[in-house]
Amino acid sequence: MSLLGLDVGTTGCKASAFSEDGRVLATAYEEYDNQRPQPGWAELDSVDVWNKVKATIARAASETHRDPVQAIAVSSLGEAMVPVSADRRILAPSILNFDVRGEEYLERLASVFDDESLYAINGNTLGNHYALTKLLWLKHHAPELFEQAHKFLLWGSFVSFMLGGDCVADYSLANRTLLFDLERKAWSDDLLGRAGLDADKFPDTAPSGTVVGTVNPAIAGELGLPAGVAIVTGAHDQCANALGCGVIDDGQAMFGMGTYICIAPVFAEKRDPNAMIQRGLNTEHHSVPGKYVCFIYNHGGSLLKWFRDTFAAAEHRAAQDAGADVYPALIAEIPDGPSTVKVLPHFSITGPPEFISDSTGVITGLRLETTRGDICKAILEGAVFYLRECVESLPPTGIAITDFRAVGGGSKSDAWLQICADILDRPFTRPRITEAGALGAAILAGAATGVFASHQDGVNTMVHPERTFEPDSAMHARYAPHYDAYRRLWPTIRPWITQPPQ
Q: What radius of gyration, in Å, describes the C-alpha atoms of the chain?
């Protein structure tokens, strides 16, 4: 028998089948585009994504006849929601977290959602990247759709519902709405009342790793799944990633290297809200019972993609035509020591602590002899310098990080991982399976159905380290003046951004 993990993201979905001892039996991937019907809008075509999710399941299932799938769970993007009818019809596209719609409600919400009281209940502070403001936009600008919708479902709960499961969201995803009570583990009547929303529009909630039904027989036949496949609640993608690389104990942290570079440290007790708010840190249920995570992140992966498309478009097209990846060749060009170029990675809205939306990226130190490799390495360094500032601010919160587990596409690069280890002065361990979202979902499916005695048993069985990158103390020392120079970039440019010259 096998376990199927789904990973549904902003730009693509993956289905991976794993044997009970952690071997990858089959993997299928489909990509899709964000839709931008108006400037500033960003959404997913819910029907198209659902069709591609089904296609990946069918392709993976077709290779598991010797080990039929017995359970399925979903790791998914957060915040975005899909309106559905009671008879499982998709009613509209899904508004993404970086869509500008909803900004107009922030001022009013701030008067009833002060940071301290909101954080005390939900573990987040107000922002337009959460589901709440998008729901208010729909309520006021698409009232017929809002009334028609039976439920608004986060993507993990949506996929489970469409497969035939009950209408249930796991705690980590429910948290991304700003309407969930962390302590009570339920929708907050207080927060819903302040927002003017009704709990009836939302699914029930349950911990990650809860059986919520079986795949509908007609869907199972369409997808080539056996009868009776259990549907299990999954997790917000970063929480599933953390489980999928074995980050379940205090002191450990996931280091996700995808579109976002995201650090997710684990802690067992909720931390001082004031210390967390000052550092822009959330508190969210982990996919493992009794544990919490927070997220430190920036758009480092997007920056590298921008570099590829801007400085190596021809090589990228040639690599695509050859069925290869251009990134290894680009990273092979980076110099051995610290780059003489410095990059402020504010090319998009920043992450913690300030979530700056009106900044701008900076590349400085350019000379006629500057190479493409110098700029590439400076982008990698700048993204990690940003994270180092955040990590160095953690001690007052009581959150400690002793080592990192690296996952995601970027973790395949030895050179990039060594840069991370040297700058952050912590060991980085890469597991054999670096696409950890689907694996984390599969572990949840196995723990819920008795394949594993516990989450720890699932990790022990399915997560295996491949290599550890130890920090080079001499290189860490060489980075010290470069890090100091980086830290001066934003204070230097900030007055120009906030008060540009006339």
A: 22
